[in-house]
Design brief:
The chain has about 290 residues and is an alpha+beta fold. The protein contains ten helices and twelve strands.
Length: about 290
Amino acid sequence: MMVPEVYKECTPLSESDCFVVFERRKSYFSFPVHVHPECEINFVSNAKGAHRVIGDSFESIGDNDLVFIANPNLRHAWKDGENSSKDIYEITIQFLPSMIEQYLSKNQFQSINQLFKKAYHGVCFNQETIDRVYPLLKGITTENNGFYSVMKLLALLHELSQSEGLRELSSLETPEDNRNIQLLKILHDYTSKHLTETIKLADVAAELNMSRSTFVRFLHAQLQMNFSEYMLDRRIKTAVVKLKAGYNNNFVADQCGFNSLSYFYRVFKNTMGMNPTEFKNKCLKHQCVI
């Protein structure tokens, strides 16, 4: 089984915030398979045929998709797959577990506590539930009062906890899967540390205690890439994360190991369909921290 490379997402959420909400319209899915310490509710509409990756669960979604994840180590992403729509609508809510953990042992929160336990594996909801909670979900994106936004989020969690159309997605991973994830983490950490440098295949293979040929086979088996493709993918995906965080283009190009700003612009546009400035402005326009 191919195990996708896992990126650690850095969200704009701080310990002083309750949650962050993103509302986007986009023509394709660009974010890599990733993990983050925040819990996440993600709604996707008008993307039938797109692929949803949650741990070892890989499914094609319908016209609407609603998922709740409450596991900091559960890798997840949405990919274009067979989706042909160029008008994808997405709402993402991320919040730290500490926002609600103190209440989960209370009687009034027992159903939400059970929801969190199931969401450790990632859960999806049927269309009936989506229809019922969508007004609450949409209301969070338009609420200007921070206090009432938090109340609406708690109400949304309660309604999700009452759903009879809930399904767990990811199963427990095998030891082989865990070993591959560990190796990919070593690979990710090493290339992250040296991303501003020229990284040689032999050095990476040595870091993983592999011969060159074994590493090449491992990379192809796990990510279906050769080493050059992998490094370009790493640099672009790291640039995506930094641009979303608002860093300027010169800094991003330098930190991601591109030898010139013009080369960075050209490669980024060929990969993402827009230049770095257009991409950054589009991302920053659609985020709101509560």
